[in-house]
Design a protein that fits this description.
Blueprint (H helix, E strand, L loop, with lengths): L1 H6 L7 E2 L3 E6 L5 H7 L3 E2 L5 E3 L2 E10 L2 E12 L5 E9 L1 H4 L5 H8 L2 H8 L2 H4 L4 E9 L2 E11 L5 E6 L5 E6 L4 E8 L10 E9 L4 E2 L3 E5 L19 H23 L7 E5 L10 E4 L2 E4 L14 H16 L6 H19 L3 E2 L11 E2 L13 H19 L1 H14 L6 H15 L2 H13 L4
Parallel strand pairs: 15-16, 16-18
Antiparallel strand pairs: 1-9, 2-7, 3-5, 4-5, 5-6, 6-7, 8-9, 9-10, 10-11, 12-13, 14-15, 17-18, 19-20
Amino acid sequence: MHVILLLLSLSFLGCTKTSFQTFDWKEGDKTKIKAELASFDFAPAEKNLSGHEWIRLQPQIYRGLVVESAYKKEILADDGELTRLRAGVVKPETAFAHLDFASLEEQSSGILRKLQSAFPLFRKRPPQSVTPVITQRGGFYEIIWQVDYVDPKGQMWTLKLNRNLEVRSIRPAGSQFIDTSAWVYPRGPLLGAVQEVPLKGLYLEPTLANHWVYVSSQAPNKIDKVAGPLKFSMEDHRFDQTQAFVYLNESFSWFQSRLGFKMPFQVQAEVFVGYPEKTNSAFYYQGKIRLGQGDGEFYQNIPRDPSIVIHESAHAVIDVLAKLPFEGEGGSLNEGFADYFTAMQLGNPRMGEASYKKAPFRRTVLNDLSVADRNGGLYHDSGIISGTLWEISEQLGFKKGLELSMAVLNRLVPGSDFADFGTTLKDVCAQKLSSEEARKVNGILSKRGWL
């Protein structure tokens, strides 16, 4: 289906992108910027505590539709005072004047039927969601349909269609309470045997869940109640469902206890994605984590690898705080922070050590990569970010390094790239480090090409 979709024609009409404006207030008089932003509409959003700061990140909306990549991000002190404001917004009066919202409303009523007629896949597997959004392409703005769906192998895809349902792009996207116990690998199969661990605050049904995470399974043998101890053999599909829950729950607990960040919504996770096929799926997208079993050639027992499961949970945190993209330089920032937080939680710089079969590990944050080593590879370039943050943490001590790294993430935005990361990192260091600490960090930044 994907080949057919990509061969469809791409017609386009729109209005120029020159109306995009950016704002960045750090200090001084913020009254003018606040007044200018008051004329724009943003989706309501709660503020989230992160590393002793409050973060509020709001997408721009226009007539109820999200404007892709447009945002307002506020950083507030403990007392609620605004300390930093960044925004990237689109002026509706020039950019959106040509958009036909009346015909959009007419098309919305039958959009699912039209999608099923145009794309046979959706007749058997309805999309997860179909949402109109305002986006820009080639320097112009238009209304497109964003269709999120899961293919038969369990991979999540985002399909973007114009008003004629022609393809713009298609990309893989990443009750009651009881206490019980479960038998799992507390730190993964390489670092000890299966042990009994307590599980607290569980919902009684319909599956393994608490206020942070809900873990289901595509395998036929799945957990449907948690009233008794969860002790399963390693051949039982339910073992991996329990294992993933433990890693995810501990990860979100770690973010709250170490950094003061509490997930504002329940993350939906699923194991054995693509069952009965053995897939290498491991991704986060829009509040959902999907984990395959591993194909046995490149990966095996993915839900039992703490670095992979925790890495995906870190993407959920990054999404809430900065909404970094999954592609380009912003995508490398996203992956770099996810690897760094995973390594900090586990005290282990190696990623994929327990499941990757082609080498002792998939990648490591313990590296000497510099900015000059960039080659455009998403994961290769992410190592420059994770390596920098890891080395800083080694020099400053992991507690100080973690707080510093979280402060940097707090200040990043959906449009952040390597240049913005470098500038932000230097700003945070200047604000939060002593002269001796700054001397140590500047040596790292110079060596890695950030200075």
